[in-house]
Specification:
Glutaredoxin; alpha+beta; about 80 residues
Length: about 80
């Protein structure tokens, strides 16, 4: 399994939904709360070229945000990435 990294904020409903899906799948991930660590928001934007949260990485691969994560699930591709 790839290391999973998710950049979040505490108040973001999309972050909560993305984490719920990963939790339901039994995935272990590292969460970086950019509202608590502003320097990490800069890191997130440089890595993803996006300003919004969540931003999800599987290893070095940028998955995208919550919509992209759920799209992988609907296409039955998420389990293979988590394996």
């Amino acid at each position: 399994m790839n290391d999973i990294l998710i950049y979040t904020t505490a108040w973001c409903p999309f972050c909560i939904r993305a984490k719920m899906l990963l939790d339901r799948k039994g995935a272990t991930y590292t969460e970086i709360k950019v509202d608590e660590e502003p320097a990490k928001r800069v890191e997130m934007m440089q890595r993803s070229n996006r300003r919004t949260v969540p931003q999800i990485f599987f290893g070095d691969s940028h998955i995208g945000g919550c919509d992209e994560l759920y799209s992988l699930e609907r296409q039955s591709k998420l389990d293979a990435l988590l394996a």
